Amino acid sequence: MERVTLPARRQRRRGKHHGLIQDVLRELETLRGDSAVKIQLLGIPAKTLRSAVFRAVSRRGIQIASFSDSDYLYILRKSLAAPHRDLE
Questions:
Q1: Distance between CA 72 and CA 60 in Å, rounded?
Q2: Where are the domains of the chain?
Q3: d(CA 79, CA 25)
Q4: 3-state DSSP assignment of residue 74
Q5: What is the share, in percent, of the chain residues with pLDDT greater than 90?
Q6: Which of 25, 42, 59, 80 could form a disulfide with 33 if both were Cys (CB 3.0 to 4.6 A apart)?
Q7: Residues 28-55: pLDDT tens digits?
Q8: Whole-structure pTM over 0.90, yes or no?
């Protein structure tokens, strides 16, 4: 067994969707109130992607709402979100 010194600031784990999540965060920062970020699922389960985005925005204090269809995940900021209405 061996002891090693850890860096003063350990780096968080970067998941396999890190780049995509960073892109989503950038889009959310400039999102207008009448818009949502539309993410093509490309074989990634919507619940997996939704969880990854939720973890990232929670660390930044951003509240989101999301919904999905068979091909896309849509994410909008709750503070900017319009009152709920049925989507066609």
A1: 24
A2: 18-77
A3: 15
A4: strand
A5: 44
A6: 80
A7: 988 888 889 999 998 889 999 999 999 9
A8: no
Q: How many helices (H) and strands (E) does the chain have?
A: 2, 3
Distance separating alpha carbons of residues 40 and 53, to the nearest angstrom: 14
Written as one letter, the residue type at 29 is E
Of 65, 76, 3, the C-alpha closest to 35 is: 76
DSSP 4-21: -PPPSSPPPP--TTHHHH
Q: Which residue has the higher pLDDT, 58 or 8?
A: 58
Other C-beta atoms lying within 10 Å of the C-beta of residue 64: 22
